[in-house]
Amino acid sequence: MQARSLLSGLFVIAQTFGAASAALAFGFDEVAAEARALALQPWRDAPPSRHRALLDLSYDDYRDIRFRPERALWQDRPFELMFFHAGRGFSQPLQIEEIDAQGRVQPLQVPASAFDYGRNAAKLPALVRPGAAAEVAGFRLHTALNRPDYRDELIVFLGASYFRALGAGQQYGLSARGLAVDTTGGQGEEFPRFDRFWLEKPAPDATRMTLYARLVGPRVTGAYRFDITPGRRPEGTTRVEVQARLFLRGRVATLGLAPLTSMFLSGENQPRPGDFRPEVHDSDGLQILTGRGEWIWRPLNNPRAGAFVTSFRLDGPQALRGFGLLQRDRRFASYEDLEAHYERRPSAWVEPRGDWGPGRVELLQFQTPDETHDNIAAYWVPETLPAPGAPLQPIDLAYTLHWFSEQPPARPGGWTVQTRRGHGYDTAQGDELQFHVDFAGPALDAVRTGAGAEPVRPQVEALANARIREVRVQPHPQAGGQAGGQTPGWRMTLRAERLRADRPVELRGYLMQGRDVLTETWSLALPPEGEQKR
Questions:
Q1: Pairing state of beta strands 179-181 and 255-262?
Q2: Helix, strand, or coil here: 142?
Q3: What is the pTM of this model?
Q4: What are the residues facing 241 on neighbouring strands?
Q5: Phi and psi for 7 in degrees, rounded to 5?
Q6: How do residues 88-127 score in pLDDT, each as one tens digit?
Q7: Burial classification of residue 249, based on how many CB atoms lie within 10 Å of its CB (0-12 exposed, 13-18 middle, 19 or more buried)
Q8: How many other CB atoms are there within 10 angstroms of residue 74's CB atom?
Q9: Which of 3, 104, 299, 356 is in the most buried spot, having the most CB atoms within 10 Å?
Q10: Using CA atoms, how far apart are residues 105 and 10, in angstroms rounded to an integer?
């Protein structure tokens, strides 16, 4: 008991940041009131760290500042809290507060002694002296995911409005964000940030974690609530229920809601010459479920140059039922990377709660030379926005983020297993494109064959800059092998002519038998690949 008392005493109420609130039942409405008040004031960014040496750290030096795990907060609870130090690119310290069981708010001050500064100690004399307080840029929550005697990382909040989560058996990959502002269509992307967090102290028997965040930026403020349910074995799906209220203080060209950010360097549809790894990506496609029940799959690309933006406009009641960036290929042999283990990267699925109205799912892809850059973003863009400024009209939304490895919350009866581009023994004719698309799933397992059965047939069309030359389908005895099993399926082979090299190509197709749609819609978009021949 003495050791627990010492540990809890390392984190003290920071009276210099303001007295603890005596109000009970602190929650989302209080955060929203703060966000609304800020939206009515002129924008003023927070100052960076007061320690210049922290801002000048190299990448390796910053990584050498490590939180001491034995100094974690809430070690006697199901969730532990650890922190990231301010420094380098994370230059603006956060305010972090704890909400106790009575609803009282107490600001947390993290002692500098909770960090190991490594080789930076000599550069930071003001921080290593006894009694110094650290500046915190982010935090992570730990809980038991894979086995009861070890607490894994569950979720991390660090940088702007970025966060990412894990379930059992997963390894960090793609990220989510609170909001995307002018990722496309404006005068340059703006990165609003979470500058203040309130964390509910977990009960001794807590099964989920609740926290609140305030979002600030030059043109938008917001309030967020996150309810985090860990994905322990055997299911392994972590759920983050998000409630948000946004206030526009300036005009926005593209407001991206529930944004996801990932990396795609190469894949079976786009091999990388000279790389021993067959594929390198955190996600291999964008999945959408429309209000009309259509499943859409768009394989990702790494454009040769610049940015490539595509979108899916949806309208009608409950126009969007979900979207996500998925890592479908779960075989180690598809990546052959003993360090990165891309087969363990989670997929993320956004499930709206309530009707988001008409809008579009937008996909941004831009060129990356290596796997250190996130070059993929997907988000929902509402068709209309309230006018900025007073009187303020809030934008309210709610959704659940699912972080999973094997199965999303729902799944089509037949899905795309892989897309391969290229020719075999035959020779390409002019600007001909050839694709080999494998499908698998329970709907294909149930296909009727033999005498009297209707044939499986493809439904394919060229939506932009292409002419279909040939389409054929045939049974594939191991189509599902790319997903980790050996289940049969079907292969669709498509030959198309690109009409102009300087324009994008868009193709779509699915399989049917009789009147039954067997698969999701394979929706391929290729960026321009050169100048038009004269």
A1: antiparallel
A2: strand
A3: 0.93
A4: 227, 400
A5: -65, -45
A6: 999 999 999 999 999 999 999 999 999 999 999 999 999 9
A7: buried
A8: 22
A9: 299
A10: 18
Q: Could you tell me if 133 and 83 are in contact, meaning their C-beta atoms sit under 8 angstroms apart?
A: no
Position 488 scores a pLDDT of 86
Tokens of 445: 């397992």
Q: Note whether 144 and 175 are within 8 A (CB).
A: no
* Of the candidates 349, 225, 211, 329, the residue with the CA atom closest to the CA atom of residue 280: 329
Q: Are 325 and 173 in contact (CB under 8 A)?
A: no
- The CB density around residue 353, as the number of other CB atoms within 10 Å, is 12
* Residue at token pair 């909770």: 114
| Cβ count near 5 (within 10 Å) | 8
Angle at 204 between CA 203 and CA 207, to 5 degrees: 70
User: Is residue 410 within 8 Å of residue 289, measured between CB atoms?
Assistant: yes
Q: What distance lies between CA 224 and its chain's CA centroid?
A: 17
Strands (E), 353-488: 359-366, 376-382, 395-404, 415-421, 432-440, 456-464, 466-476
**Token pair listed for 274:** 């000279």
CB-count exposure of residue 295 (10 Å: 0-12, 13-18, 19+): buried
Is the Cα torsion angle 159, 162, 168, 172 positive or negative in sign? negative
CB atoms within 10 A of CB 305: 10
What is the rounded average pLDDT for all residues in the chain? 91
pLDDT (tens digit per residue) in 247-304: 999 999 999 999 999 999 999 999 999 999 999 999 999 999 999 999 999 999 999 9
Residues paired with 489 in a beta bridge: 440, 476
Average pLDDT of span 479-505: 84
Q: How far, in Å, CA of 292 to CA of 296, rounded? A: 11
Closest CA to 374 of 230, 521, 180: 180
| Residue 496 contacts residue 524 (beta carbons within 8 Å) | no
| DSSP symbol at 428 | -
φ, ψ for residue 113 (rounded to 5)?
Answer: -65, -10
- The DSSP code sequence of 247-262 is EESS--S-EEEEEEEE
Residue of 527, 528, 522, 529 lying closest to 461 (CA atoms): 522
User: 190, 219 in Cβ contact below 8 A?
Assistant: yes
User: Phi-psi region for residue 316, left (φ > 0), alpha (ψ -120 to 50) or beta?
Assistant: left
Amino acid, res. 163: F
Instruction: Kindly give, in sequence order, each residue whose CB lies less than 8 Å from that of residue 258, ignoring residues fewer than 6 positions away.
Output: 176, 242, 350, 352, 379, 380, 397, 399, 401
pLDDT value at 351 more than 80: yes
Phi, psi of 59 (to 5 degrees): -60, -45
Residues comprising the chain, all counted = 534
Q: Are 313 and 323 in contact (CB under 8 A)?
A: no
Displacement of CA 10 from its chain's centroid (Å):
34
Tell the residue number behind the tokens 């940088």, with chain if given: 159
Q: Where are the beta strands (DSSP E) in 51-135?
A: 66-67, 80-85, 95-99, 105-109, 115-116
